[in-house]
Amino acid sequence: MNTPYYIIHKAELDNSFRLLKTALETYWNNYVIGYSYKTNALPWIIKEFDRKGCYAEVVSEDEYALAKAVGVANSKIIYNGPIKTKDTLLEALTNGCYVNIDAGREIDWLDDMPVKDCKLGIRVNFDIEKMCPGQSQCGDEGGRFGFCYENGELEKAIRRIQEKGFTVQGLHLHVSSKSRGIDIYKAGATVACEIKEKYALNLSYVDIGGGFFGGLPNKPQFNDYMQVISEILSRAFSPEKTALIVEPGMALIGSPVSYVTSVIDVKDTT
After folding, report:
1. 109: which residues sit within 8 A by CB, 6+ positions away?
2. Cα–Cα distances in Å, from 141 out to 15, 32, 80, 123, 126?
3. Is 120 exposed, middle or buried (0-12, 13-18, 19+ CB in 10 A)?
4. Could you read off the pLDDT of 44-77 as tens digits, one per residue?
């Protein structure tokens, strides 16, 4: 067989997904799993997660179009990222997708939305390095996605959305970390509770993002993450009123998928 190619160990993939679902059902039985297309968008893989009931978590017009091309239902898409197009953003909101606003121009585009009742959320940029020293990827420079909580930009964005007649229904709190540690998710859940109370938001979902470990016995397990997330979120939210969205990618397929290639040449450089 010609290389390169992927080998998908389906039994292992199924088990990984079962462990994630069990953890969510145990600790917050009102949830949405969004498979992250940017991790691996092979058609079989994204169709398989669609069959398992996952939403498509996409971050661009191309990924949004791919989800539709493989038959993902219009309402089963989570649209993130700062490079959405106006047409796809408005279409996604109209079709019942979760859309997390990430840039000021996206708020401007809401002027052309035909309806106000939609699954509209906002991405939060918060100081994860201060809360979890040494664990963030961006360090003291901070992340480049979302609206900053600490300097007031998040509040301005929320007020702009509300002034246009929309309700902020969700918070997106994904951060990139070096550690993938439990403290990262504890921090995100804590900030979600603070924002809800500070701005008197009635949220239908909290999107905690992805970045979990998966398939490694000596690392945190899905149960460990979800237990901590639920303990913190319970201070301000309940599963009866607020869904928990998770966006795993590598945590689900990092271990069950192998990449096979060939050595075509060897060079001595010493």
Report:
1. 86, 89, 90
2. 38, 31, 22, 18, 12
3. buried
4. 999 999 999 999 999 999 999 999 999 999 899 9
Read off the amino acid at residue 90: L
Q: What is the pTM assigned to this prediction?
A: 0.94
Instruction: In whole angstroms, give the CA distance from residue 42 to residue 201.
Output: 38
**Encoding tokens for residue 236?**
């301000």
Please compute Rg for the chain using Cα positions.
Answer: 19
Task: Give the residue from 34, 36, 31, 24 showing the smallest Cα distance to 224.
Answer: 24
Q: HEC string of the chain?
A: CCCCEEEECHHHHHHHHHHHHHHHHHHCCCEEEEEECCCCCCHHHHHHHHHCCCEEEECCHHHHHHHHHCCCCCCCEEECCCCCCHHHHHHHHHCCCEEEECCHHHHHHHHHCCCCCCCEEEEEECCHHHHCCCCECCHHHCCCCCEECCCCHHHHHHHHHHHCCCCCCEEECCCCECCCCHHHHHHHHHHHHHHHHHCCCCCCEEEEECCCCCCCCCCCCHHHHHHHHHHHHCCCCCCCCCEEEECCCHHHHCCCEEEECCCCCCCCCC
Q: What are 1-43's pLDDT values in tens digits? A: 899 999 999 999 999 999 999 999 999 999 999 999 999 999 9
* Whether the Cβ atoms of residue 224 and residue 184 lie closer than 8 Å to each other: no
Cα 97–Cα 100–Cα 106 angle in degrees, nearest 5: 105
Separation CA 33–CA 248 (nearest Å): 7
Mean local confidence (pLDDT), 254-264: 93
